[in-house]
Structure formats: C-alpha cells, structure tokens
Design brief:
The structure holds two protein chains of two kinds.
Chain A lengths: L7 H50 E3 L5 E3 L5 H4 L5 E7 L4 E2 L19 E7 L5 E12 L5 E11 L1 H51 L12 H46 L4 H26 L10 E2 L1 H14 L6 E6 L4 E2 L3 H18 L3 E9 L8 E8 L9 H6 L13 H12 L3 E6 L5 E7 L3
Parallel strand pairs in A: 9-11
Antiparallel strand pairs in A: 1-2, 3-4, 3-7, 5-6, 6-7, 8-10, 11-12, 12-14, 13-14
Helix pairs in contact in A: 1-3, 4-5, 6-7, 7-9
Chain B lengths: L1 E5 L3 H13 L3 E5 L2 H10 L4 E5 L7 H10 L6 E5 L4 H10 L3 E4 L4 H15 L6 E4 L2 E4 L4 E4 L2 E3 L3 H12 L7 H8 L8 H15 L8 E4 L3 E4 L5
Parallel strand pairs in B: 1-2, 1-3, 3-4, 4-5
Antiparallel strand pairs in B: 6-7, 7-8, 8-9, 10-11
Helix pairs in contact in B: 2-3, 6-8
Classes of the chains: A alpha+beta, B alpha/beta.
C-alpha cells in the first residue's frame, strides 16, 4: 500500500461519477431532441390543418378576391391570439383579424400545390412558424387564378414550455446522478469495510497492539489474511525456535568448554599454554557466531517495545554488578520512547553501552533515550545516548574499537567488545553507532535506529 | 566460608569444588536445581555459585525460592548464554553478580570473594581493623604494617571474624562454616586455633585483636567509621 497510488474508493468513485455524468448528459440531450422534434411536428400539423380549413372555407368573390366564408377557429378572429392566417394573390389579399398590429408579412409565394414552411418574426421579435401553400383557383368565369394560403403560429409559448421542460429534465438527471453517487458511496463503504478493518488490524500489529489478524473475513480476503497470519505466526515461531536452539547450543558447547579449561589447568604449564589459545579461539567463535545468528533486527512483525522498563532493569542489574564502584546511572527516557525491536536485542544493545560506561567511566553514567522523528517516516525511530565521565575514547582509536571482536581470531580483551556488539545490533536494525566525546572528555556513544 | 555450587556438568562441578576447597572454602556441591535449592535452604550457606542452565528446576527458580524464603546470602550466577537478557533475568531474580562460561577459575573466585566482602559490609578488598590489615585478594595479613605468616585454616578463621567485625561469632558457627560437614567437629579445636592466631597477631599480648565473650563466642572490634 504505497501512498502515491489513489485509494480504491477514490478510483471507483471518480470512474463511476464520470460515467454517470456522461450517461445523464446523453439521456438529457436525447430526450430534449425527441421532445423538440415531436413538438415541432405537432406545430406543423396545426398549421396544415388551418390551411386545409381555410381552403375548404374559401370562396372567390366578385372582385377576384379569395376569402373564407366563415372563420372556423375563433383565435383567427382575436387580435394577438398567436394564430394567424392570410390569403394573398388575386386583386387584394385577405388577412385574419388576429394579424392586426403584429407586423407579420407573408412574403412566400409557392407554386401551386407546393407548401413551404418558414421561420418569421413579429414586430415584437416573437418567433413565428409560417406555412404557405400555393393553390390555383378556377374562377366562375372559367379563368384560373393563383393564390397563396398562409397560416402562422406564434412559437414563443411553446418555446417557453420547452425551456421549462428542459430545466426539469436536467434537474431530474442531476438529482438521479447525485442519488446514484450517494448510493454508490454507501455501497462502497459497505464493500470496503473489511479492507478498512484489515488496514486497522495491520496497524495494530505494527504497533504491537495485537499479534494476529482475527476473526472471519470475506471470501476474497480470506486467502490474504490466512496467509498473512500464517506468515506472522511462522516468523515469530521460527525466530523463537532459532533463539532457543542456539541458546541450547551455546550452553551445551560452552559448559564442556569451561570444563576443558578447568581440566587444562591441571596439566603441565607448557601443555596449558598450548591449549589456551585454542580454547580461547573456540570460545570466541561460539560467542561471536551464535550472537550474530540470533540477531533479530527490527522487523515489521515486531511489536513496539517500551524501553523504559528494560532500561530500569539494566540499571538495577548494573548497580549490583558494579556495586564496588557505586556508579550513578541516570536514565532520561522520554515517556513515549518505544521501538519495534526484539527485547533480547534491546537489552543486549543498551546493556553493552551501559556496561561499557560503568566499566570505563568514573561512576557517572547518563543515558538519554527519545524518539527520532523524520517527516518521511510514519513511525519514529529511536535515539540512545550514553555518556560517562571516564577518559573517553581517542578519535584515532574509535574505528578500531568498533572492529574488535568482529573477527573470531582477534583478541577481544579490553574496551570495545561491548561497543562492537552494540554496533552489530544497531546495524541489524538499519541504524548507526557513533563514538564521540562529552565536553568534559568522557565517552559519548550515540545510537540512532531509523523509523519507518 | 561455606559455599554452595550448583552445576550439572560433573567435570565442571568437581573442578569448582576442588578449587574452592583449595582456596579455603567449605563446599557443598549439588548437581541439579532441586538438590541445590534444598542445600541453600537447609545449610548455613555464605555464598552460592549457581549455573543457570540446570536440568529439572532452573537456577533462577532456586534463587527466587531462596529469596522468597528470606535467605540473603550472595549468589553468583554462571551462564553460558552471555546475553544481557539472561544476565538481567538472573540479577532480577535475586542474584548479585554473574560470570559467563567458559571462565577462568580465578575470575569466579575473585567475584565470590568480592560478594562475600560486600555482603559483610566492606567496600574495599583491604579489610582494616585498627592496625590489623587483611588483604582478601592476596590472602595476606599485616599487623602495624608487619606481615604475619598464617596457615590456610588460620587465615580462613581470621577472615571470617574480620568480615563479621563487630559481631559476636559463636564457636558452633565457626565449626559449621570452616569445616566440611563430615569432618570431626570439636569446639576445642577452634579454641586451639584462636589461641594460635592470638599469639601470631599479638605476641606481646597488648593489642587483644580478638575478644572472647565467655559462653557466647569471639569478636573482632569493628573500626570506627
């Protein structure tokens, strides 16, 4: 789970929101077009019906004018009604009374039998749909006269209705999309709940609040969680077994080694001298290799170790071991100082640092411990500083001191073996150990273990 | 001084017992935790050397049992696991110091002597009572700066009394702590040794370094602090 990748929920939500917008927009456009086409067809049919009615009612009068005998539709007789008709051609045109003052002019003169639709405008700017129909009229005298029959309707009321309709359509589509998205959100939350629980439980394991993932999981996750649990349990068990086995091995090798040492003391001096380096070497190989083998380091499956208590145990233990010198060991440990490190490794690390400070200092030992924070870490590291008031370690000696005992064939007497061990542990945790000096010249060891 | 060794490895146990006896200790040796715990509880032990990797009852258990029963004698642990985890566990259970295996016997002896001295309230390896000086490391005795030659038993007797300077030590306590269990015990022998010790330390009879409290025992004066 890297931070750079978008969350699953965001991916699903963004994709679905886009799809919904496209679907709603498309549906709205299609519905709008359909409604508009249907509406316009209806408007045209109205005009055609008017034209047919006018032709049916028309009669040529003596002056050669074609006029409707009676006006069937009352709207044609009402000024400003929105329905207009006219007959042009012949000696003079006829206009329906509703056309008075509208400024409407029919200019189209289609050939007989031809119909032509036009978009016109009234004087006040209202849009009007007009139909002109050409007709040839046989007069009583036997001649033929061409007329144009016109009908028109003001479309503004219809446009207004269309706009209202469109607004309702868009609002409906948006509402539907919103409801769907909200529903999706709920569905996702429900579907993602096991994932979120998995995340929380993994965090719990990271922080050492729990050992394994618990309970029932959905079928899709059961494989992962089962394997994770097996992995966690396996790793813990394996580390534990390693340590026990190696501890037993150390015990069963060292006790006979001690006995051999004891027996050799009864031998003549030249044999003792011949045996001693071999015994010493075996002892160092066992010590060094076994210690390396059990180093746990800092792993993601390790629980956070609150370091206050082990440090206090070490303080009391060292108080006994160095009772002769009555060292004053001061612990300054931040209340939240904790680190995911194996308890044995931590005791070994801090024990060696404090032991060294007690051994080579002059009775004043100060240990400071606190979290080491870096912005890119989700969890802090740990800084340990141990200072003593002894003669310190000369700058030229420092690297050599840290190399001591790291090779099995080297002599390991004297200062530094503890520091070499401590550095091995710090390195296994991905950290560093630096030897410095206090202002008064004592040794100052700083261990930094990185966070994650 | 009466010393208890608990060690399951026979060669090592024998070696420790022999060397401690040679160094003037009365040694009880046990091969496992149960026996050792019993010895520590029932015998007048001054110091115990306990191996932590014992079969049966662990060394830690034995130490905890002694401490719970109120036995305060110092305990030195021998551990093959030289990690601080084991050391801390041992010291936390009530042990007073540790030596990791394999070890030089001299190291173990020095630690045991230091523990005995500390538990008797002496901070330094040089015990001084007036003009009487006892160097517990070199096992040398000086009176007013002049070395005094003592036999091993005489030295042990004097060391026991000086370590408990200011306290009255009974004859029976001395026989218990200075003789192996199956040796013949005769309180007259102690009187004889005290007499020899007095003549060697104080040939003129003017200093009187060892008091006799009739019917109670002997006492070396504790120096004024």
């Amino acid at each position: 789970m890297t931070r750079a990748a978008a969350s699953l929920r965001a991916r699903v939500l963004v994709t679905l929101a886009l799809l919904l917008l496209i679907a709603a927009g498309g549906a709205t456009w299609a519905l709008d077009t359909l409604y508009r086409d249907l509406g316009l067809r209806g408007r045209r049919e109205v005009l055609e019906a008017q034209v047919v009615a006018l032709i049916a009612a028309a009669e040529a009068d003596a002056q050669g004018r074609l006029v409707p005998a009676d006006i069937a539709d009352a709207r044609l007789a009402t000024p400003g009604s929105g329905l207009y008709a006219a007959i042009s051609g012949g000696t003079a045109p006829w206009r329906s009374p509703s056309m008075v003052g509208t400024g409407l002019e029919f200019s189209a003169r289609p050939a007989p039998g031809e119909r032509r639709f036009e978009d016109l405008r009234l004087a006040d700017g209202s849009r009007v749909l007009a139909l002109s129909f050409g007709t040839r009229w046989t007069t009583a005298t036997g001649g033929a006269q061409d007329y144009s029959i016109h009908a028109a309707e003001n479309l503004e009321p219809w446009y207004a209705a269309m706009a209202r309709m469109r607004a309702r359509l868009v609002a409906g589509a948006l509402l539907l999309a919103g409801l769907l998205l909200a529903g999706l959100q709920l569905a996702l939350r429900f579907a993602m709940r096991p994932l979120r629980r998995l995340e929380a439980e993994l965090a719990g394991i990271e922080h050492g609040r729990r050992e394994l993932l618990g309970g029932e999981w959905p079928r899709e996750l059961a494989g992962i969680t089962g394997n994770l649990n097996a992995l966690l349990a396996g790793e813990r068990g394996r580390l534990e077994r390693y340590r026990t086995t190696l501890g037993n091995l150390a015990h069963s090798l060292k006790t006979p080694l001690a006995a051999l040492g004891g027996l050799s003391e009864a031998a003549p001096p030249e044999q003792q001298q011949a045996l001693a380096p071999h015994l010493q070497r075996m002892q160092e190989i066992i010590r060094h290799q076994l210690r390396r083998a059990v180093l746990g380091g800092a792993g993601p499956t390790l629980a956070d170790l609150a370091i206050g208590e082990p440090l206090e145990q070490l303080r009391q233990a060292l108080g006994k071991v160095y009772a002769e010198r009555r060292p004053r060991i001061t612990l300054r440990v931040a209340a939240d100082a904790a680190y995911p490190i194996d308890a044995g490794d931590f005791l070994e690390l801090a024990g060696n640092l404090l032991d060294n400070a007690c051994k080579y200092g002059h009775g004043e030992v100060v240990l400071r411990a606190g979290p080491w924070r870096q912005p890119e870490w989700r969890r802090p590291g740990l800084i340990l500083e141990v200072e003593d008031n002894g003669p310190g370690i000369a700058a030229a000696e420092r690297e050599r001191v840290l190399q001591r005992g790291t090779r099995a064939d080297e002599s390991v007497e004297g200062q530094g073996l503890g520091l070499a061990v401590a550095r091995e542990i710090a390195t296994a945790c991905g950290g560093t150990l630096e030897i410095g000096a206090t202002p008064a010249g004592g040794a100052r060891i700083e261990v930094r273990l990185p966070g994650r | 001084m009466r010393l208890l060794v608990i060690e399951d490895e026979p060669v090592l146990r024998e070696m420790l017992a022999t060397r401690f006896r040679a160094a003037g200790f009365v040694v009880d040796a046990a091969a496992d935790g149960n026996e050792g715990e019993y010895f520590g509880r029932e015998y007048p032990i001054d110091v115990a050397v306990v191996d932590l990797g014992l079969p049966g009852r662990s060394g830690l258990d034995a130490i905890r049992a002694w401490r719970a029963a109120g036995h305060g004698f110092p305990v030195l642990i021998l551990t093959a696991r030289d990690g601080w985890q084991e050391k801390v566990a041992g010291l936390d259970a009530g042990a007073d110091d540790y030596v990791t295996k394999p070890f030089q016997f001299e190291e173990v002896l020095a630690r045991v002597q230091a523990l005995l001295r500390r538990s008797a309230g002496w901070a330094q390896p040089l015990l001084t009572c007036g003009d009487l000086e006892l160097d517990t490391r070199a096992q040398e005795v000086r009176v007013a700066g002049r070395p005094v030659e003592l036999t091993a038993f005489e030295y042990r007797l004097l060391e026991y009394l000086v370590l408990r300077a200011g306290q009255v030590v009974s004859k029976s306590e001395l026989t218990e702590k200075l003789y192996e269990q199956d040796f013949e015990r005769d309180s007259n022998t102690i009187e004889v040794f005290i007499g020899r010790l007095r003549r060697k330390l104080d040939p003129t009879g003017t200093r009187q370094p060892i008091e006799t409290l009739r019917g109670r025992g002997y006492r070396v004066q504790r120096p004024a602090p």
